[in-house]
Amino acid sequence: MRFSALAFTALIGPSTAFSTKSSTPAAVCNNKLRMSTVAEPETATNPLLESDGLPKFSSIEPSQLTPAMTTIISTLESQFSGMEDKLKGQDTVGYDDVLPELEKISHPLEFAWSIASHLNGVKNGDELRAAYEENQPKVVAASMKFSQSKPIYDALVKVQDSLQGEESKEDDFVLGQKKRAVEKNIRSMTLGGVGLEDGSPEQIRFKEIKMRMAEISNSFSNNVLDATKAFGLEVTDPEDVEGVPESAKAMWAQAHLQNLIKEEKDEGKKKELEATKVDASAGPWRITLDGPSYLATMQHLPNRELRKKIYIGYLTRASEMTANEDGKGNNIPLIDETLKLRKELSGILGYDNYAELSLQSKMAPSVESVKDLSDLILEKALPAAEKELAAATALARETGGEEYSEANLPKLMPWDVNFWNERLKEKTFELKEEELRPYFALDEVLKGMFGLIDRIFGIEVREASGEAEVWNKDVKFFKLFDKESNEHVASFYLDPYSRPADKRGGAWMADCRGKSEALDIDVPVAYLTCNGSPPVGDKPSLMTFREVETLFHETGHGLQHMLTKAKVGEVAGINGVEWDAVELPSQFMENWCYDKPTVYGFAKHYETGEVLPDEMFEKLKQQKTFGAGMMACRQLLFGMLDMELHSNYDPDSDETVFDVQRRMADIYTPYSKPVDEDRFLCGFGHIFAGGYSAGYYSYKWAEVMSADAFGAFEEVGLDNEEGVQEVGRRFKDTVLSLGGGVAPMDVFKQFRGREPNPDALLRHNGLA
């Protein structure tokens, strides 16, 4: 029953599911979702009302959302009221009377709204945005009717009591799924306000807060997207891009041309521009704030002043520094209001703070336990980070010229660190990122990754583009088959490239269709969304190694969703998995990017077909822990800043959220304090527009498990093919198959034979 208060976290916010450190064929019209200005009549031809198969993306229009929601919610409310009346009159209630029935009732709304949420993230536009904002309150109201339904809650308590003492003919996993689903929904309803007296001031206020929080979350995400696409820095002097990799210059030159085309009003001139071939070496260039462009700037652009402009531009997105004169587009008031509302909501439910409420549904037992793990890692990471920064600084002083002298620059500024860290890495390993990119063409990387999935999990991935409608010409569609039975077990969409005009940044996996016996869905379907480097000119997408890791990461999430054996929809695949365990399979998959058989399955030069030279691979492996100290400290800062804002911080005090950021930076990144202009929190969508509020620590919490899980493969020997396959099948049959149907600690113990140990994490990061 994904129509629970817990599940509606995904439905009422932007299309965020599981993202990186950090959710989205047939015909599309000019690569744009068709936009109708006239509302569609309420007829069965509305594709959002057809929930039996895959979404019909080629015929979905924003104007169809309101009539679809009106029809679906009206039907849902009628069916839901009837179910409540029926349960009130039953003395004996069985499992099948509640959860499977609610799954059936809620599925049309879940399906239609998840499509809208997905498109809002990958095909954002004015009409879709307006329709989404218009209908979001209706969806939130519908979700709260469930979460605060006393007849449903009372029925679930009866079911829970009956399941506890049941001697079932079902196997333990089937019964366990039902118990977990019931337990999770009782908890979700408790956190959703079911205990509040009907019509009481507390209940009324609780509903108001929920409505407003959903609205704020969507506005926050839109503001970041708008600020990102509004920024563009034109560069015309070749000296300013001297030494920049050719791929980055080509990307910026193409961005400049695309902007000219977009701004040109004369159709004749526009066609001339469209026929123009960019000159990466001569420019001009346009630097934007989408991921590939921003990272290339920070790592490679030699001009300090330009780097500073891009850095400040990125960190001030959606702040008072970029907002309109009327304040529109400023996320600071939204952050302040969000923190106040979360604290108030927690108080209504009897919790001291929002972090305490959030941890009720997670593995971590307390804020203190999160801090303990963070401090354990910090003890090793901070000295390493300080040494790394000292080495980068020394290189800048030695080779950077007078502007990097200690007299002119007492310490490297934040916009200098990545640049000199990259130079240090190149000097240390005699290997440049640009030398690797020709070996990482997207199509070959996919083939190699699919080869790994075949090798260790016994699952064959076949491209099936053209068999499903898509929202953009670059989207691919794939099917997964069990090699032994040749059974089609799952499918997924892959949206690989950055599109700053209408696609939000980051990378994520989201649920398109979840496995469910009640809904007769045997083939789950996932959305895998990345923001990788797009093809430039006649060159294919040549990925950075980090983009390769990101693709593996999101695929790990997808595999847990797609390879589930659980059939109770509420706990199948990613559903019902505790939030601080969801990053286990994703971070686990990243480890294979340093496994030689895996890498040599895709690392071929896109022009010559030559495999990656052995010496380059060895240097790539050696680079794995380069900068690990600063990276770990950065993640610890984000996690503990999030936790501090939701536990000890008083949003009604004189202290600002940016004061808290500086205070936490003094602990976790004392070597690099935020600059005065730093408004990082204004773009921190994970905790203000996603599912990671009081939960960003989950990356490190789950990394303990993922590192230890990969350790099982290391123990049998990565060159022991038989052993690797045996452990791989066990990983599939536990971590990837059991989903939320078994508690994550029990899942891990089934796979590893014991509880996780942080030693593997420290060792993998070179911090042991």
Q: Give the helix tally.
A: 28
Percent helix, as a range, is 40-55%
The largest sheet, given as strand count, sense and whether it forms a barrel, is: 6 strands, mixed
Distance from first to last alpha carbon = 43 Å
Low-confidence stretches: 1-43
Query: What topology, given as strand order, has the largest sheet?
Result: 1-7-8-6-5-4
For the secondary structure, the number of strands is 8
Shape: globular
Whole-number average pLDDT? 92
What class would the helix/strand composition place it in? mainly alpha
Radius of gyration, CA atoms, in whole angstroms: 26 Å
Indicate the proportion of strand residues: 5-15%
Describe what this molecule looks like in 3D:
The protein is mainly alpha-helical and 768 residues long. 52% of the residues lie in helices and 6% in strands. The chain is built from 28 helices and eight strands. The strands form two sheets. It has a six-stranded mixed beta sheet, with helices on both faces. The protein has a two-stranded antiparallel ribbon with strand order 2-3. The two termini are 43 Å apart. Mean pLDDT is 92; it is low at 1-43.
